[in-house]
User: What shape does this take?
Amino acid sequence: MHSPRSSPHISEFHVDVHPERERVRVEPIGELDLGTAPGLRHQLQELRASGFDAIVLDLRRITFLDSTGIALILAEDRVARERGHEFLLISGPPAVQRVLGMCGLLDELRFAGSEPAQLASPAQPETVSQTSSEASVT
Assistant: This one.
């Protein structure tokens, strides 16, 4: 009998980082909740500390978003605004957008187009992938 962890349909939360010249696109994959938000928060803090002042959080591969994930998004948006930095979101799937809408955040947060020209180049830069248990960019 297979455990839920070994199922090919269930994957561990991880974050792909796509550094670009002037910004970085951060793509969390899986459920963004109480258990995974601290790892994403740490990753975003490291990127800011590394000198990235333009961060795009790509929500397209988020499968679930709870209040902890919403709080993280709001905190990152606030920090960016206070520092005069850019923090944009790429819209997530309908369920994620619905949650943001129910919280009244769709008009408060800044969204990039679903495929911003500067983020959708055919030759993607190197991707750095991290699981929620990793602490630094490798």
Notes: The helical segments are 37-49, 67-83, 94-102. Residues 1-10, 114-138 have pLDDT under 50 and may be disordered. The longest helix spans residues 67-83.
